[in-house]
Amino acid sequence: MTTRWTAVRVLRDRTAGRCLAAVVVSGFGTSALWLASGVWVKDLTGSDGLAALCMLAMWAPTLAGPFLGTLADRHRRRPLLVALSLFMAVLLLTLCAVDGPEELWLLYAVLFVYGAAGTVHDAAESALVAGAVDRSLLGDFNGLRMTANEGMKLLAPLAGAGLYTAYGGPGVAVLDAASFLAAALVYLSLRVREERPAPAREGGRSATAEGVRHLWADAGLRPLVLAGGVTMLCAGVSGALTYAVVEDLGHSPAYAGVLYAVQGAGSVTVGLLSGPALRRLGARRFAAYGISLLAAAVALRAVPYDPAAWACAAAVGVGLPAALIAVLTGVQQRTPGPLLGRVTATAGTLVHTPNVIGLAAGAVLVELLGHRAQLVALGVVLGVTAAVLLGQSPASADRTAARSASDASPA
């Protein structure tokens, strides 16, 4: 089964193709807003710190991922995705009222709610896809989703910057609102059969804990998610060292954009290859090999040589997404449908929160320690993480997977 054939098979699947289309259109608007919001605040206030708060406002709600994911398990996923998309479209239009520093509170409030709704949205979408797409194609779908997201990161900021220059922040907000409206229409067009979720037998806190318990008790998911968290922590520290690496190469800070573009190309490539690789290797080994590649790339970033920097950027673009795709696919394949929303969101919190911590730590450490020593140390930590993941006994993981599959029910 060739990579091309499986990719075509995913796109020909009515549900998978339309879910992917919704990801593309809503992701385009989100990527545009991500850049424009910081520029908007910078223009209004002249403050770098206040501009950085935009990212914090959008990210902070993911800390409540286990609780927010529970909401995705309390409702049928397709109607919930439609409602959330329409809600975010209306919410974004309120940003048209922001035209001075005195309205910044509204921008931050919208970004915070946007982040919370986005966490529920991602959990519900993951659960919907896992219940509607053939399980053998989940790796292909998640890979194509990664490819689409990386493509949006390359194109959307340019569109957002152009729109911001012409029409200001409200213009970008209207673009993002339109993208969510389009996503809602795509979700409305889906034809999926969903059972109404059973009435909750436990309170919100107990229901959230049930998802955490499932994740921790699964002998295959626990080490996979923990490895993903360590990987993202190291990636955050490494990312904070990017401008030091560029300076060491003898280039201006703008050269970082070239390295990010090369990294994006690597991410697009691994997204196309991930489905066949996951079927051949399994999530555990696929993640471990990706982390191993990332370990070598991060350590070799310490070499002040342009061809090496380009090669490392491409390798980071391949290795890091491989780990993320493996985690998401593993969660979808090993989690019963009724728990999938909260388990997906919990895994997302455990994997992505360390990235922000790493960015903050890297910003401090780069002023105290040489970046070369840090990069080599990060490479060692990542190498150990990959070795531990490879050393996990597959037998216990397979037994847990079999139990999860027998307990699973349609989402």
TrEMBL record:
* Gene3D superfamilies given in the database record: MFS general substrate transporter like domains (1.20.1250.20)
Is tRNA processing among the key words of this record? Answer: no
Q: Which domain of life is it from?
A: Bacteria
| CDD domains membership | MFS_MefA_like
Where in the cell?
Cell membrane
Keyword ATP-binding part of the UniProt annotation: no
Q: What is the designated name of this protein? A: MFS transporter
Q: Which organism is it from?
A: Streptomyces prasinosporus
- One Pfam family assigned to this protein is MFS_1
Q: Where the protein is mainly located, per its record?
A: membrane
Q: Which SUPFAM superfamilies match?
A: MFS general substrate transporter
Its record classes its membrane topology as: Multi-pass membrane protein
Which sequence ranges are marked TM in the entry? 20-37, 49-68, 80-100, 173-190, 224-246, 252-274, 286-302, 308-331, 343-366, 372-390
Q: Which UniProt keywords apply?
A: Cell membrane, Membrane, Transmembrane, Transmembrane helix
Show the InterPro entries listed in the entry.
MFS, MFS_trans_sf
